[in-house]
Amino acid sequence: MTGELIRLLAGLIVSITALVLLNRFARLHAFFCLLIAAFILGVITGIPFAKIIEAMQAGFGSLLGQIGFVVALGSCLGVLMEKTGAMHVIARKILSTFGERRSLLAMTSLGLLVGIPVFCDSGFIILSRLVPTIATQSGIPATSLSLALSTGLYTTHSLVPPTPGPLAAAVNVGLGEHMGTVILIGLIGSLPVGLTGYFFAKRFGARFTSTVNETYRPSSQTHISAWSAFLPLVAPILLITMATFPKLFGLSGIIAEVLGVIGQPFIALAIGLLLAIPLLRSKDMTWPEWVSAALMDAGIILLITGAGGAFGSVIRQSGLESILKDIFTNYHLTGVVFLCFAFLIAALLKTAQGSTTSSMIITTSLIAPLAVAAGFEGTVDLATLVLAVGSGGMCVSHANDSYFWVVTQFGGITAGDALKNYTRITFFQGLAGLLTSILLFVLW
C-alpha cells in the first residue's frame, strides 16, 4: 500500500469520523458537519487551500443547479397534497380497495405511493393518524400497521426520485437526463423491498404493543374526488417515465420533442403542482403560507444536499479516483462485486452518520468515476447501480436517523422496540434491494 493511498484513506476515515462525531455529540447541523468534513479531507490529502474552496463551491453549485427546482417543486406539491386533504382521500381509497382483511398490505402500498413525492418523515406524521382506527376495524395490531407504513414510505423515499437521495445519486453517475429510467428501476426495486417490509411488519408487529390510543377523525374535506387526489401524484411520474419512450421505441419528430420537454423532472413536477391547485377551496386562504413553509423546508434539504455535493467534489479532487481505478483494474472488481462494494460503502456511511441522502451523495461521488471501468456503461446498468447505493442508504435506520425518532414518537413505539424490530426490518430491506439490483444487472 503506497503512502499516497494511506494518506487518502486516513483522510476519508478522519473526515467521516469528524462528520459523525460533530453531528452526534456537538449537535452541529448536518450542513456544517459536511462542510467541515470536506475541508478536513482536503487538508489531510494535501489539496491547496484555494483548491479546496474552489472544489467545494463547484460541487455545491453543480448539484444544486441540477436538482434545486425539482426538490423545491416536490416539496410544494407534498405540502399541498397534505393540507388540502388529498393525502387522506388517497389513503381511504387504497384502504377501501384492499379491504379490512388486507389492511396491512394496504398500508405498505400507501407508504410506497406517498413516499415518492413526500418526504418519509412528513408522510408518516400525516398518515400515522390512520393507524388507531384501522387497527380497531381490522383487528390487526397497530404496531404491525405502523411498521408497514413506515417501511413502505422509507422504501420509495430511498429508491425513487424525485426525493433528494436517489435524485442526487442519479445526477452524480451521469443520469440527469435519464431520470425516467432511474424511476422505472427504482419502482421495480421498490416492490421486493416494500414486500420485505410488509412480511417482517406482519411477523414482528405482534411481538410488542403501541402506546398510541387516539382515534383518527377523517378529514372534513370530502369534496375531493379520488381521481383528482391521485392525479397530481401520478401525473409527474408518468410524464417523467414517458420521456424515455423516444429512445426505447425509436420515436422522433415533434412527439419525441414534446415528450422530452414535459418529461423533464422539474416541468413534470410543475404540472403536478398545477394539477394540485384546483384542490384548494375558497376558504384555504393560508395556502401561500403553506408554500412558503414548503420552500423553507426545501431550502434546508438543498443546503444539506449541496454540502454533500461539496464533500463529494473534494473526494474527486483528492486523487482517490485514480488510485481506486488501479485497484479495481488489478483486482477485477467489476459487475456484481462492484455493486456489492457500492452497497457496502453506502451502508457504512448510513449506519455511521444517519442520513440516507448524504450517504448516497458521498458514495456515488466516490464510485461514479469508476463505474465505466467496472462495466457499468449503459443507462440501465447505471440506474441499477443507483438502486444498489439506495439500498445501502437504507441499511440501517437507527438512533442517529431523524426518521427513526419520527417512527417511534408518532407510531407509539418505544426506542428499544424500534431498535429490535424497525431497525432490523430496514437491514433486511437493504439486503432485498441489493439482491434485486444484482438480479437486474445480471438479467437485464
Written description of the protein model:
This protein has one domain. It is globular and about 65 Å long. The relative contact order is 0.15. The two termini are 37 Å apart. The protein has 22 helices and no strands.
Features:
444 residues; mainly alpha; 0% strand
The low-confidence runs, each spanning 5 or more residues with pLDDT under 50, are 214-221
- Helical segment count: 22
- State the helical fraction: over 70%
Class inferred from helices and paired strands: mainly alpha
Sheet having the most strands: none
Annotation, overall tally of beta strands: 0
Overall geometry: globular
Would you summarize the structure shown here?
The protein has 444 residues and is mainly α. The chain has one domain (57-443).
